[in-house]
Amino acid sequence: MTKRITGILIVAALLPLVVRAADDNAAARYNKGVALYQQNKLDEAKAEFQAVLAASDKDTTTMVWLAVIALREDKASEAVDLLEKAITIKPDDGLAHNNLGNAYLSKGELEKAVAAYRRAIEIDPSYADAHYNLGIALARMKDVDGAIAAYQEAVKRNSDNPDYHNNLANMLKAKGQLDEAVNEYRIARQQKADEVTFTVNLGLALWEAGKVADALAEFEAATKAQPDNFTAQLYRGMCQLKKEKAAEAVEAFEAAAKLRGDDFMVQFNLGLAYGKLGTADGYRKGIAAYEAALKLKADDVNAYVNLGYSHFKLEEFVEAEQAFQKAVELSPNLVLPHHNLAILYLRQRNLEKAEASWAKVTELQADDVDAWVQLGDVRYGLKKYPEAQAALDKAVALGSQDPEVYNKLGLIYDHNEDYAKAEASFRKAIELNDKYAVAYNNLGVALERQNKLDDAKAMYKKALELDPAYEHAKFNLSRLEGNG
């Protein structure tokens, strides 16, 4: 995920010191050193500055330049020595304190860096770079509020620096102030439109804020400008997935995979996108993507669940069961793999295993109404009527308004020869669905068992009115009218 924390600002405030009156050799060598530095000829610049310092060992400006070069060469301790010496000679040199902070920051001595930046700000409260660098140090110390305040001060003093706005946005985003972060990212992007990182960061903030269409526009702009931007390609795909545009998501994730095929999230989301195509070829490619993801992260439960689902859609039930079982092994208390196993076992007509899986689902998620319904249905199929009734009663207690639940309860009461309760259950099923032909037929049976023959005939006729081809209702009505 791209968060551009721009480099510490080392030399910007040195520019007014470029030219010295060239009335002696030291001044000429100093000016030459500055020119060489600006040409990125660090060794030659260093030689010139060292010559200047040899002639005047209290030249603090030259010490700062040498410290800057030391930092560029990753020699932070050498930079600290030079800057502390300069500060001893000139305690109120804000530039030296700022760069001392940079040196300590490079060494990872964050508290010392903060103290140095604060001293630079104390000397010159308008020193925007020092405020900005202070924000970087505080951010690394996980002081989000402090970093926000420092970046805001930097922006107040120099609102035209896109890096200031970008880093402020990073901290606002970290604090969850997404609208404010989006605004700052927009400013950064407007100020430097060719910096793709700012566009990506804006897209990420919009994505996190749930503004998928706006985020997609930013990621598409980023990938157009920089096709090899991995984060932009990845999140472009995620936006397309969110918008249910599977083919477009596949294209984006495939582009991301070409850039970084060893990234778990790419392979996982590529599997999702392939599956969303809803084709056999899509599920087959999805399987390959999930297998690639699992090679990168062998203990990811969700990848096994999705792998199993893809096999299930291809009716590869052995492989699907293996994947779901692996998910259960990795996370025994996760509901989804048990749920999927239950569906798989139902598809295979293995009611005993389906019962065990649905029972596990209800154990883990006791308020899952549908799981109780399914458990009751399976137990009814196994002729475990008391256990089936208990499960269905639980579904009703949890608020089920499924007419099939009441129809099944009616059948259990009928089996137990409790015809009055059977009648009440069938009537409830009809109340919930007055087009439920089966319930009318079953109600007719319950009424007939109570010798309410005219009412029973009416129910059989109603069932046939709703479903003229309903053979059970035809038989029951014919039988009853024949008996009449």
SSE map:
Elements lengths: L24 H14 L3 H14 L4 H13 L3 H14 L4 H14 L2 H14 L4 H13 L3 H14 L4 H13 L3 H14 L4 H13 L3 H14 L4 H13 L3 H14 L4 H13 L3 H17 L4 H13 L3 H14 L4 H13 L3 H14 L4 H13 L3 H13 L5 H13 L3 H14 L4 H13 L3 H14 L4 H13 L1
Could you describe the 3D structure shown?
With 484 residues, this protein is mainly alpha-helical. Helix 5 packs antiparallel against helix 6 and helix 14 packs antiparallel against helix 15. The chain has helices at 25-38, 42-55, 60-72, 76-89, 94-107, 110-123, 128-140, 144-157, 162-174, 178-191, 196-208, 212-225, 230-242, 246-259, 264-276, 280-296, 301-313, 317-330, 335-347, 351-364, 369-381, 385-397, 403-415, 419-432, 437-449, 453-466, 471-483. It has 27 helices and no strands.
What is this structure, in a nutshell?
This protein is mainly α and 484 residues long. Helix content is 76%, strand content 0%. It contains 27 helices and no strands.
Q: Oligomerization state of this entry?
A: single chain
Uncertain stretches: 1-23
So what's the CATH class of the domain at 1-158? Mainly Alpha
- Average pLDDT confidence is 93
Query: What proportion of the residues form beta strands (DSSP E)?
Result: under 5%
Distance between the termini: 79 Å
Computed over alpha carbons, the radius of gyration is 37 Å
CATH superfamily of the domain at 1-158: Tetratricopeptide repeat domain
With helices defined by DSSP (H or I, 4 residues minimum), what is the helix count? 27
Q: Spell the H/E element sequence.
A: HHHHHHHHHHHHHHHHHHHHHHHHHHH
Largest sheet: none
Structural class: mainly alpha
Q: Can you tell me the CATH topology of the domain at 1-158?
A: Serine Threonine Protein Phosphatase 5, Tetratricopeptide repeat
- How many strand units? 0
Give me the CATH architecture of the domain at 1-158, please. Alpha Horseshoe
Task: Using the alpha-carbon principal axes, give the shape.
Answer: elongated
Percent of residues in helices comes to over 70%
